[in-house]
Amino acid sequence: MEERTIIVTGIGGNVGQGIVRNLRNTGMPLRIVGTNSAPFSAGNHLVDAFHEVPFAFDPGYLDRISQIVEEESVDLIIPSTDFEVFYLASSADRFSTRLATSGVQASGIYLDKFLTWEHHNALGIPFAKSFLPSEWRGQFESAIAKPRKGRGSRGLLKGKFDATLLEDDEYMVQEMHTGLEITCAVYVSYLSGEITGILTMDRSLENGATSFCRVVKNWDSQLREMAELMVRHSDLKGSFNIQAIVTEQNEVIPFEVNCRISGTNSIRTHFGFADVAWTMQELLYNQPAPIPEIREGLAQRILMDVIYPDAKSVSDLNRTNKDNFFLF
To answer: For residue range 196-205, what is the model confidence (pLDDT) as tens digits?
Structure first.
């Protein structure tokens, strides 16, 4: 079978690194080109070639990606960050290669958490109530201020905060619910436009990333109903993720949607939800994603080291899997 070349962006983060590991796990003849906004990270040892790129919102990002596509003869781009999904989707006509993104409408709505709230509220899709800082009058007993776009868990303001110091175009104030945190991955076929399956896990986080998770099915019917409404009223495609709280009253309240492959992709593939592999097989080989059979299980993340013996500096390295390294 002919070798194909895939760009995976953001290989400095757990999302991009998980995508690369999942692609390797398919056993398909793939050449993986990694990109990142930093010149060196833990993800460099996973890829066959590496290119440093600007942030997606910086001038020159799209030109740089276009250049890499040409240089590396790229067949598919799988972005791992919200901003890259949006900017690539917004400029899809610039690329002859396939893009693993939703359409520009969904990419824009779900990049911005306040737009997500407005979209869901207008359609009657559950979502945590939100206000712009200028509208905040203490409407909730417990609230959190968060950046409207990206940043993972950075920039969050909990407890007492002065909303008058926050700009409407940068921040939003959201009702903060207590209960069990769950994450639900949804896959929408690029070929049929239909949801092929979902997988839900409860989880614990450390520094904004999942550290422990467990497959749960208690709320799948509620989450699938939400996901179907979301897909019906936007151009969502491929993998996306709903983050939610389950309250003591057993109410599922989403508080964020990631319009991309999410950080637990490296875990959930082992429980029957192989969204990275499905993305590749649909977009590269035109093979429909199967209906998944979800298995029970749990996972605990650990920290490992990439050791480059005898290297005196990063400049001594190729910054790819061609370097002399080992994992410990």
So the answer is: 999 999 999 8
